[in-house]
Amino acid sequence: VSAPLDTRSLYLDLRSGIARAPAVDVGDLAAVSARDREAALTNWRARMVSEHVSARVFAALVPQLMRAGLARKWVVEVSAMIDQELDHGLLCARVLSALGADAVAPMPEELPEVPRHADATPVECILRNVISISCCSETVAVALVGCEREQAGTPALRALLEQILRDEVRHARFGWRLLDELAPKLDARTRERLGEYLVAVFEHQIAFHAPFLEMGVADQPGVAIGAPDGESNWQIFVDTMTRITVPGLERQGLAAERAWTAATSINDA
Amino acid sequence: MAAKVAAMAGLMAASAAYAQGSEARTADATTVSKASPSAADTHSADAAARLADRVRLNGMKGKSCGCSPCWGPPAPPEMPTRGVEA
């Protein structure tokens, strides 16, 4: 008789999912300090969870795309992204395992729903969410993963990061392409509301990435296995937002510069 | 130095992700690679440091899904009530 299910214990356990996968060569860990090794474990564990739970974000976009009457190709693309995020969770679990830890982690206490934006039309609703997900989060993710790929300590780790990066590029491009198609057709009022929403999106991005500022700066051997360099990651976040996302949204006729200024003028008023 | 080169590679990857599929955006995105490295670096480092100071000053914490800032996108925010009425 198996033990009763503990319904209070919310863990993500990917051990069986990676049981038959080959071990990832993470190199000689002797050169990595205990502090950086622990930081790398924490980072990969968080990534495993983050990638896994982000599948729900793309899943929520499917009915929203349908409601907006968008072409089947967009729905097909987003549907694939659900699997890609779940796969990334397994890839992160394999690195965690290679570093000597079990691929088990607590689930986040809260998993916020993707907003339905009842105040908006279906097209504006999907644009709000895609701007946040693809044009901001995933575009920043491309820069972060791209940076880490360059510093990977072994070919196996580099290849794994390359695989994740390929998908993150798809996820970012999706949003920019959708915006390309829809933005020219928007009326002035919708553009104005999207501009207002951008302030909330940028504030949300800043808050989401703020923990980088509390992370340490790992040594090179630590960075090579995924220990964070918080200072560099923060710089990459700000650079991506100011040099790619904000100008990209401006090009689509959205008041992104103004929104970024408002979002970064925290308590200036 | 290696970290800076890697960071630039990451930024270029993001720039390429933005640019792919649109000639106009490709031209726009090349400004990332063609910017004067020293001037661009100084300006962006200043901007990042200023924003970091403000974030610390206001005690902002990650508030999305409880994860550290990873690669998986968080759920987008709601439209704040201060927004323009539909």
Summarize the structure.
The complex is a heterodimer of chains A (269) and B (86). Chain A is mostly helical and 269 residues long.
**In terms of structural class, how would the helical and strand content of chain A be classed?**
mainly alpha
What is the typical, i.e. mean, pLDDT of chain A?
95
Mean pLDDT of chain B: 75
Principal-axes geometry of chain A comes out as globular
Q: How much beta of chain A, percentage-wise?
A: under 5%
> Roughly how many Å apart are the termini of chain B?
49 Å
Which outline of chain B best applies?
extended
What is the chains' assembly state?
heterodimer
Distance from N terminus to C terminus of chain A (CA atoms, Å) equals: 63 Å
Radius of gyration of chain B: 17 Å
Protein model, in words:
The complex is a heterodimer of chains A (269) and B (86). Chain A is mostly helical and 269 residues long. Helices cover 67% and strands 2% of the residues of chain A. Chain A has helices spanning 15-18, 34-53, 55-67, 72-98, 122-151, 155-182, 188-209, 220-223, 230-251, 256-264, and strands at 11-13, 104-106. In chain A, strands 1-2 form a two-stranded antiparallel sheet. Helices cover 59% and strands 0% of the residues of chain B. Chain B is built from 3 helices and no strands.
List the helices and strands and how they pair.
The complex is a heterodimer of chains A (269) and B (86).
Chain A: E1 11-13, H1 15-18, H2 34-53, H3 55-67, H4 72-98, E2 104-106, H5 122-151, H6 155-182, H7 188-209, H8 220-223, H9 230-251, H10 256-264
Antiparallel strand pairs in A: 1-2
Helix pairs in contact in A: 2-4, 3-4, 3-5, 4-6, 5-6, 5-7, 5-9, 7-10
Chain B: H1 2-19, H2 23-34, H3 37-57
Helix pairs in contact in B: 1-2
